[in-house]
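User: Hi! I'm working on a homework problem where we have to compare a predicted structure to a textbook description. Could you give me the structure for the chain below?
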Amino acid sequence: MITLAQFKKFAPNSKYQQQWYDTLFGPQTELGGKSLLDEYQINTPKRVAAFIAQCAHESEYFSQRAPPLAHVAEVNASLRRYMQEVPGGRLLD
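Assistant: Happy to help. Predicted C-alpha cells:
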C-alpha cells in the first residue's frame, strides 16, 4: 500500500493530492468499502506502479481534479480487456 506521504512525492505540485489519494487508494462506497486496488486486483508492486503511471498520464501528473470513480474503474477495465485481446498480452504480475 502507498501512504499519502509517498503519494505526495509522485505529485508534489498537485493541488489535489488528498482527493487523488482518496480516490485511488481509499475505501469506496460504490465498491462496498473496498479500494480500487482491491476491487481490480492491483496487488503487486508492478501493477500498482503501472496504475499510478496511467493515472498520472491521464491527469497531467495529477494536476487535474480526480475523475468520478466510475471513470477510473472504466479505464482499468479497458486496460484489462486490451491485455486479454493482444496476442501474447498478459496482465502485469
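For your comparison, note the following. The longest helix spans residues 69-85. The chain has a mean pLDDT of 79. Good luck with the assignment!
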